[in-house]
UniProtKB/TrEMBL annotation:
Listed name of the protein: Glucose PTS transporter subunit EIIB
Top EC group: transferase
Documented EC number(s): 2.7.1.-
InterPro entries: Glu_permease_IIB, PTrfase_EIIB_Cys, PTS_Glucose_EIICBA, PTS_IIB_1
Region (Disordered) residue spans: 19-39
Residue ranges crossing the lipid bilayer per the database entry: none
UniProt cross-references to Gene3D superfamilies, sorted A to Z: Glucose permease domain IIB
Amino acid sequence: MRRHAIRCQHGSVFVAASTSRGARSSRRGGRTAAAEARREHVVAQDKAQAILSALGGGDNIVEIEPCITRLRCEVEDGSKVDEAGLKAAGAHGVMLQGEVVQVVVGPEADTLAGDIEDLM
């Protein structure tokens, strides 16, 4: 069996193994694409849960909507928002003014907003 390391434009390394039956590939030395997708889904769910908790829980959120790289939230009580918890959950920045919170999360804002709504 011959193994070939292939680097994609995003820096991920794929290992292709050539056998007499053809080639098969796996990502990061043995993980299948399906296993990787499941792991990423679990990580995203954990991040969504951590953000939801840091916003004071589902009962504290009046409205949440994604806006390009941010989660725009209206909360019942701004004092329940844990800015350090949001940053620990992966937020790049937090802006809090009264009952309005903007959480900078990057391009995954749409996905996170959907995951948070599913958890509420």
